[in-house]
């Protein structure tokens, strides 16, 4: 189970070995957890494709040591038991049966993947995690495109989700359309989207309650504010032309 959690959040994933590696060979609990992390990986395929394209164009690896992104932080120079998967996700594999981990969160804010609650970085953390979880965090100033998990890659990506965790500005070169630049100016959060024809659910995390949403180049189907998560949740129907979304807080 621990090996699968790590492997499914890696650039290349497959069950491989000289003995049985099918998850159902390890019992119902292992199968359930393996299935959950497989769905997580498949939901991240738009994000993974985008970073695979970036790797081809720039040579930046998809699995990145922390020192690559935080070269001025002396704390990360010897850290080799955690890594960034792409630019936005911090993955901490669990390497013992007890589920005990100690990891470093670099400076800045992070979003706990499972709770969607913000965590302040620049510190070491020690914790015990249950078998069905590993520490996983979204980096500050990140944009993550996701989709509903598919059963195989011949299925079309239909309704999409864009998760946005931004302090001042963020950018993602999205493989399937164009780029996703996000900019905060005073009390206005601006997101530009390419000429997609899909329906997008856009979630802005750790935000104040919104006053209004302006959508140019697309149709705003709905929006709401989750006070518990401090999340602005929009649904936008794009019309095959560039779209600008402005959230006024």
Main attributes?
globular, alpha+beta, six-stranded antiparallel β-sheet, 18 strands, 4 helices, five-stranded mixed β-sheet
Biggest sheet features: 6 strands, antiparallel
Element string (H = helix, E = strand):
HHHEHEEEEEEEEEEEEEEEEE
Unreliable stretches (pLDDT < 50, length at least 5) are: none
Average pLDDT number = 94
The total beta strand count reads 18
Strand order of the largest sheet: 1-2-3-8-5-6
What's the structural blueprint in terms of helices and strands?
Blueprint: H1 2-7, H2 28-43, H3 45-58, E1 63-64, H4 66-69, E2 83-85, E3 89-91, E4 100-105, E5 109-112, E6 118-120, E7 123-128, E8 136-139, E9 142-147, E10 160-165, E11 169-173, E12 179-185, E13 188-193, E14 199-204, E15 212-216, E16 218-226, E17 231-238, E18 243-248
Parallel strand pairs: 10-14
Antiparallel strand pairs: 1-2, 2-3, 3-8, 4-7, 5-6, 5-8, 9-10, 11-12, 12-13, 13-18, 14-17, 15-18, 16-17
Description of the structure:
The chain is an alpha+beta fold. The chain has four helices and 18 strands. The model has no long low-confidence stretch (mean pLDDT 94).
Briefly, what is this?
The protein is α+β, with helices and mostly antiparallel strands and 249 residues long. Helices cover 16% and strands 38% of the residues.
